[in-house]
Amino acid sequence: MNEFEKLEAELKGLQPAAPSEQFISRLEDALGDAGNVAMRCMPDKEEGGAHPSKTTSSPIISFPRLVAFSGLAGLGLAAVWAMVFYLSSSLAPAGTEDLVSDLAPEESQALAEESSLAQVEDPESPLHGLSLEEIQDVSVMPVSGWLDPQMNERFLRVVDEGIFERPGGLPARRVRHFFMDETLWSNPASDTRILSTTPREEVILIELDTY
Amino acid sequence: MKLYPMNTEPIWKSWFARHGAKLLLFARQQSRRPDEAEDLLQEAFVRIWRLYGHTGEVSPGLVYRAIRRLAIDWARSIDRRQARENKVALDAPLSFSFDRTLEQDERKQALLRAVERLPAQQKEVVTLKIWGELTFDEIARTLDESLNTVASRYRYALQKLKDWVPEEMEGKKEDSSAKS
């Protein structure tokens, strides 16, 4: 046992006086907006009402996290809105609204339940909430029967941009090549072809000897 | 008093509730005048929190270091001012920086008086180690001293306290008997 252990324990038993409320309030004013950048979630009062200083494990909401969360939430809401709008305008058969309004309340409720059941997740579908058949209906293209895509790189032109000085100070010749990348999907059964083209540039640096 | 969104509180408040008392104690030791300790702590804390507060957690060592450096800067300007005004700074007793309930406990009072008698360099190491709960490495960085120097000062300080506390208690008894 350390010879000073008892003394250290005694000293630790002396508690420094806490700063006054007046000082805390002064500090709050001095911090200004800098004090509100990082906020802590407090537990509900019904759940115990512990002192704030003892809730060290409660989640921290810092400013960057708040921005990220609100961004994601906004993105999610936009995606849901777009999906609902898309489904209501594209998937609902023409005249459905009139049909529903003409039905009795029990029948319209059953119809609503049936339409919600139609959105059951299809594991084969690449789109959430849409079955393969629905995708086929919407896109007016077959879902199966596609061949492997053919990719082709088409060279367009080359431009010699001349000599320039690299960050290290050595000279180099810069040559820029322009390409067009093409991808072709074809479906022989429906005689359908889809061609995607993407422009691409490649820069080649040719080192030059210095004399 | 500011209003915040429901169930939220600025993180600095809980941080300050944990470390404020210890920082204020250190600021009182570092400041030349008792009335400037709060100003010193405020200035140091606001500077550090503005820099690192957005991370949600700030190392107390940074604030201790800021207090010390500010105290040195302020002491230089105070020295100049005092030379002009010919005033002498007054030290407040250490017991002012602790809970007033200690006044009832003779042993604890003797302990505080013994701490007060320590040389300033040893007193600041004891403060940072015992109440600041910093490691020797952190203390060395805060005080710009070597690890060995800091550890030796701490050991010398504890040895002195061990010897002085009984003396202080005896002295108190003699005082009270003389009064009666």
Describe the structure in your own words.
The complex is a heterodimer of chains A (211) and B (180). Chain A is built from 6 helices and 5 strands. Chain A is an alpha+beta fold. In chain A, strands 3-4-5 form a 3-stranded antiparallel β-sheet, with no helix packed on it. Chain A is flat. Chain B is mainly α. Chain B folds into 2 domains: 10-92, no CATH class; 99-180, Arc Repressor Mutant, subunit A. Chain B is globular and about 55 Å long. At the A-B interface, helix 1, helix 2, strand 1 and strand 2 of A face strand 1, helix 1, helix 2, helix 4 and helix 5 of B.
Mean pLDDT of chain B: 80
The topology string of helices and strands of chain A comes to HHEEHHHHEEE
The low-confidence parts of chain B are none
Note the quaternary state here: heterodimer
As for the number of domains of chain A, it is: 3
Residue-averaged pLDDT of chain A:
74
What radius of gyration of chain A results from the CA coordinates? 34 Å
Helix content of chain A: 25-40%
Put simply, the count of helices of chain A is: 6
As a whole number of angstroms, the C-alpha radius of gyration of chain B is: 19 Å
Stretches with pLDDT under 50, minimum 5 residues of chain A: 46-59
Provide the structure class of chain A. Answer: alpha+beta
| Counted beta strands of chain A | 5
Largest interface chains and counts? A-B, 43 and 52 residues
- Apparent shape of chain B: globular
Task: List the topology elements.
The complex is a heterodimer of chains A (211) and B (180).
Chain A: H1 5-12, H2 21-31, E1 39-41, E2 60-61, H3 63-91, H4 96-102, H5 105-117, H6 132-139, E3 150-165, E4 171-187, E5 192-207
Antiparallel strand pairs in A: 1-2, 3-4, 4-5
Chain B: E1 8-10, H1 11-30, H2 37-52, H3 60-85, H4 106-117, H5 120-131, H6 136-143, H7 147-179
Helix pairs in contact in B: 1-2, 1-3, 1-5, 2-3, 3-6, 4-7, 5-7, 6-7
